[in-house]
């Protein structure tokens, strides 16, 4: 049953953003720093990002600090030496 439900769940448009976050997760280096801005994509990142050893995920702690992602990614670059820090920020409309 779980496999059948997973196949249905993966094909719904509401899950496309989760698949995009999972693909991003698979594509990043083990030393990447990922800063997530405020919005629905923060929930999608919690749900779908597969954080590996050596990676760092930065969130504003749910405080609604809009605009957090980009400066946090820049700071992560200087603080950790991450060559490719990533800022996740989006709010897709349907």
Structure description:
- The chain is mostly helical and 94 residues long.
- The protein has one domain (2-88): Thiamin diphosphate (ThDP)-binding fold, Pyr/PP domains (Rossmann fold), CATH 3.40.50.
- It contains four helices and three strands, in the order ααβαβαβ.
- It has helices at residues 2-11, 16-27, 40-48, 69-80; strands at 33-36, 56-58, 86-88.
- A three-stranded parallel β-sheet has the order 2-1-3.
- The longest helix is centred in the N-terminal third of the chain and has 12 residues, at 16-27.
- It is globular, with a radius of gyration of 14 Å.
Keywords:
mainly alpha, 3-stranded parallel β-sheet, 4 helices, THDP-binding
Question: What's the helix and strand layout?
Answer:
Layout: H1 2-11, H2 16-27, E1 33-36, H3 40-48, E2 56-58, H4 69-80, E3 86-88
Parallel strand pairs: 1-2, 1-3
Helix pairs in contact: 2-3
Domain Thiamine pyrophosphate enzyme TPP-binding: 37-80
Organism: gut metagenome
Family: Belongs to the TPP enzyme family.
């Amino acid at each position: 049953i779980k496999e059948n439900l997973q196949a249905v769940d993966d094909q719904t448009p509401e899950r496309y953003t989760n698949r995009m976050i999972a693909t991003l997760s698979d594509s990043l280096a083990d030393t990447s720093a990922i800063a997530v801005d405020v919005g629905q994509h923060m929930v999608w990142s919690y749900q779908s990002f597969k954080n590996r050893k050596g990676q760092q995920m930065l969130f504003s702690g749910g405080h609604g600090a809009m605009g957090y992602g980009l400066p946090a990614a820049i700071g992560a670059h200087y603080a950790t030496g991450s060559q490719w820090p990533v800022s996740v920020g989006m709010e897709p409309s349907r």
